[in-house]
Structure formats: C-alpha cells, structure tokens
C-alpha cells in the first residue's frame, strides 16, 4: 500500500505545523480547527499569533532555542490563544530539523488540552508560565532556574495563583489548575 504523506499530514488527529524561522510554512486541518483560523490566514504568519502575548512568544522562543540546540526536540504544556482571543492549555512538541540553528526549520505538533484542563482564572503571562511548570511537578527553585527568575519571585507568583484559585496548598492548586476550578 502506498502512503500519501500529504493526506496523512492534512488529516492527522493532532495539529501539525512546519515552520521556518518561527513562521508557519504549512499546517494541517486540525491545527486550523484548534486555533479557529484558516490555513490561508495562518501560512506566512509568525507563531506569535498563537500566543496570548508577544512577551510570552519572545520568552518561550529564547528558552526553547538552547534545548532544541542540545536535544533537537522540545515539548511542554502551555497556554495558547485561539483566533477569537480565547486562551486554552495546549501540549506542544517540536523537532528542529537543524539543531545548529534550532529555529531555522522545524515540525511541531499541538494537542488541545482544554477538555481536560480548562483555563478559568485570568492569569498574567508570568502566572501562566509558573502554572505550567507547577503542573510539570517543578519546585520553586527549578521554576526559577527555568524562567531565569529568583525562587522567591516564583513563590510570589505561586501565592497569587493560590489566591486566584482559592487553593490552600500547592497540591490543591495543582489539582485546581488541572481541573480548571
């Protein structure tokens, strides 16, 4: 049986995207559906259109580059933004096609996590980053190293998250973040 790779790409059950210098070169139907946009509108656009803020786009791109350079691949859970402005949790996995120039070209998969993890509270960009790392099971010190901020600053953001989610412990906060309460 001959496999039509174009059809497989187009109809894949996860959002797929080919990139060059953080610009969308091609994408499949699932990605368009997930972000509420059309292929024609997404192709040629910077990945920035998929992020809640330009700041998050820049910070994450800078943080991903050395990991892509060292390992050739990257994945995380993060909050992304649909074309209508709605934010949602998304699992993103990518591979650099050239590890020496990690943003030069790549292939990325996006999985919508909103049914398992709805976004209920209004969070700042930094709160979203801290929340994502808490869900990965990281400590304040690990989060601080990852985000290049002090662990005390992480604890301030954790306290804000606990207030917003009315959580009494970190475990309770993680549970509420996962449940979207």
TrEMBL record:
Q: By its UniProt entry, which InterPro entries does this protein fall under?
A: PAS, PAS-like_dom_sf, Sig_transdc_resp-reg_C-effctor, Tscrpt_reg_LuxR_C, WH-like_DNA-bd_sf
Give the Gene Ontology MF terms in alphabetical order.
DNA binding
Keyword Transcription regulation present in the record's keywords: the answer is yes
Could you tell me which Pfam families the record lists for this protein? GerE (PF00196), PAS_9 (PF13426)
Classification via Gene3D superfamilies: PAS domain, Winged helix-like DNA-binding domain superfamily/Winged helix DNA-binding domain
Q: Which CDD domains match?
A: LuxR_C_like, PAS
Tell me where in this chain the HTH luxR-type domain is found.
120-181
In terms of SUPFAM superfamilies, this protein maps to: C-terminal effector domain of the bipartite response regulators, PYP-like sensor domain (PAS domain)
> Per its UniProt record, what PROSITE patterns does this chain match?
HTH_LUXR_1 (PS00622), HTH_LUXR_2 (PS50043)
For this protein, the parts annotated as crossing the membrane are none
Q: Which UniProt keywords apply?
A: DNA-binding, Transcription, Transcription regulation
What biological-process terms (Gene Ontology) are attached? regulation of DNA-templated transcription
From the Swiss-Prot or TrEMBL record, give the protein name.
Answer: PAS and helix-turn-helix domain-containing protein
Q: State the species of origin.
A: Ramlibacter lithotrophicus
